């Protein structure tokens, strides 16, 4: 398979303009003849649905939550990057491009990342016009803060609820289109399969989560905006319902899955408190603007943090990375937290935590200033841990947060199945092996507001207006497949709950495919995961029928897909004999313990093709070319 | 600790529901309320009983999906928290805890503790937006907004649409929810153009959905997990009156 990204020739800064010019257009009167299916209503999905409807396409939008406004983009806290250079601190489109490529450890496409940086400035304009209440200075102009992996302040924010405000902005625009009759909304409806007719994506099969009704929807194109697969790890900062089923089903229908092993472990999360733990809570990266990360110098020092004198504290990030300090990228911060805990210097009851301390910032700026900046985050921390972070340092530990890998897409955001597009976290395209903070919101909205509206016409322009009728054999077959799968799940009457299997899967993934990976461990994990899967299909316990609101069935279907995806993640991690970004293979590190890339052999996107349940997937490679940046060992010293 | 739970069970929207008693044993104070229910559900499932259905998603107090009327209060005993942020340390050994769905005509019950809040979406669809097509926006800094106005707009924009306000109100009024969006957009320069139509249309939809009237008891604001101020309702009344007095829709 030839993986052509379809990038226009020419200088980097002109590629997007040129590409838009070279893309076929659909004239306004003809747009209403096309139906677009949008799955997922987070930043990518809601912005795409709204914008495509504004253009005149008919949109059907689906989400599994009770309202499109609940999508997990809502939980993003810290901010959104844009190369506005409002701070006059030397920022530019090229610098945002460069920081993102470098932050991703040189495993993303230059053209995609440059386009992202280019449209970032329009995103802020658009959101302000919608009434998104970004933070402002006294003069009434927009405020910024700093995020990891950058030395400029380019992050726009709305207190600690930036994701919420951006999503409500996109949701409001989509809601407007519902009233105008251009978007039809299907809440509490989950996509369970993709319908491919003559090699093209022509519809989806869904389950109504309230009635259990299985339905087919026909369209001219299908957009997956379904987020990441962090919940493979069971514990993550994702929402409880976040799942990989839509993208996994697309993979099984011919879409290639790219870089599945590139997962992001976020350094600042509230540590696990017990076996009952159902999810992990993130503490925004913005806290690292003012908080200082440390552990005791002595191994096993169990004194209260406030009793440990200054010269017995190790501010290890400031010590090792003087120029970026506490604002090193996420992968570097997480790995260092793991290292100090492995040395026995971790804090808290479990020893699996480090301190994030605001004492010095409070002394410097006063408690009021810190409260104004981070009040809601401090409050959230106190509610969960029952400790007051104004008086005692926060305890934090890394947790699974984001997945850079996802469906392979070309520059048009189209997967290897024509007519099937993937947007936002669901695709693999812009963050390489590590995503920088405040870039997820940027990418989701870039894809939805600005990229897909420009590229989808190029595909549709050649497509006949007729939709595939719902009585087409392929629709019938896909419905049967879904029903059989659900029937098979419901027939499982073993003695273990789906959550027990999910936890087992998560433990394997975290232990062997988490922050540090080895060949030996990954091989072991492969065997273990297959055992769990086999056990699941024998001993899982389901209850009830398909024709009702059945939370056990919903969960079982998602976990069954997670188990298969977990295996692919491990295979990808095994294949990549290098360390880069969030993928750290212990065998490949510099003498200082940093990730050691192998550009000669692994400067490619690994894209996996499904070959059937009994066969191994086939690896395809998209070689990455770097004409505008020089590949170097990432240094944040 | 050990607790007695009295939980509303209802098979579906057309069947009758009732309170059912369960025992929650060995509950850790560090558990969240929903994790306590997770553990109970695991036990029910092992015994072959249907687990208790409840809405939840982000479990960090921002998506607005969780609900529950706990001991007579939406989102339980905490101040400014959603149910998912409520921890068991708020209860003590031997307590009896009553768990019911949010109850309102505008929020029909789907199953057990799960309700349909589609009415809120329809109210937003009626006018809770600024009509700003993608691509038409001026540079972000061409719309300077005084910091205090931006902050006040944010206080209203923080609404998560959970519906606690409706559940707390003796009239099941949705005024706090509607007023939050109306206030946010009335404060901002971007919201001025559609200011009158917005409030008229949103209020009309609110009435159509069967929500009750406001009698200013303030219960809504008292239980709001995002502490949306009650004076938003005064703003809504003022906006509505001004709009109606000069309405173009006669």
Quickly list its features.
heterodimer, A: 637 residues, alpha+beta, Flavocytochrome C3, Chain A, domain 1, Methane Monooxygenase Hydroxylase, Chain G, domain 1, five-stranded parallel beta sheet, five-stranded antiparallel beta sheet, 19 strands, globular, B: 250 residues, Ubiquitin-like (UB roll), Fumarate Reductase Iron-sulfur Protein, Chain B, domain 2, 2 domains, five-stranded mixed beta sheet, two-stranded antiparallel ribbon, 8 helices, 34% helix, 11% strand, elongated
Helices, strands, pairings?
The complex is a heterodimer of chains A (637) and B (250).
Chain A: H1 15-22, H2 28-31, E1 35-39, H3 43-55, E2 58-62, E3 80-81, H4 93-103, H5 110-130, E4 155-156, H6 162-179, E5 183-186, E6 189-197, E7 200-208, E8 214-218, E9 221-224, H7 245-252, E10 257-258, E11 263-269, E12 292-296, E13 313-314, H8 316-320, H9 330-342, E14 354-357, H10 359-365, H11 367-385, E15 394-403, E16 406-407, E17 420-422, H12 440-460, H13 473-490, H14 498-513, H15 519-539, H16 551-575, H17 599-602, E18 604-609, E19 618-623
Parallel strand pairs in A: 1-2, 1-9, 2-5, 9-17
Antiparallel strand pairs in A: 3-4, 6-7, 7-8, 10-16, 10-18, 11-15, 12-13, 12-14, 14-15, 18-19
Chain B: E1 3-9, E2 18-24, H1 33-46, E3 69-70, E4 73-74, E5 96-100, E6 109-111, E7 114-115, H2 118-125, H3 147-157, H4 164-168, H5 175-187, H6 195-208, H7 219-223, H8 231-245
Please characterize this protein's 3D structure.
- The complex is a heterodimer of chains A (637) and B (250).
- Helix content of chain A is 36%, strand content 14%.
- Chain A is built from 17 helices and 19 strands.
- Chain A has helices spanning 15-22, 28-31, 43-55, 93-103, 110-130, 162-179, 245-252, 316-320, 330-342, 359-365, 367-385, 440-460, 473-490, 498-513, 519-539, 551-575, 599-602, and strands at residues 35-39, 58-62, 80-81, 155-156, 183-186, 189-197, 200-208, 214-218, 221-224, 257-258, 263-269, 292-296, 313-314, 354-357, 394-403, 406-407, 420-422, 604-609, 618-623.
- Chain A is globular.
- In chain B, strand 3 and strand 4 (73-74) form a beta hairpin.
- In chain B, the strands form 2 sheets. Chain B has a 5-stranded mixed β-sheet with strand order 2-1-5-3-4. A two-stranded antiparallel ribbon of chain B has the order 6-7.
- In chain B, helix 2 (118-125) runs antiparallel to helix 6 (195-208) and helix 5 (175-187) packs across helix 8.
- The model of chain B has no long low-confidence stretch (mean pLDDT 97).
- Chain B has 250 residues and is an alpha+beta fold.
- The interface between A and B is large, with 82 and 79 residues.
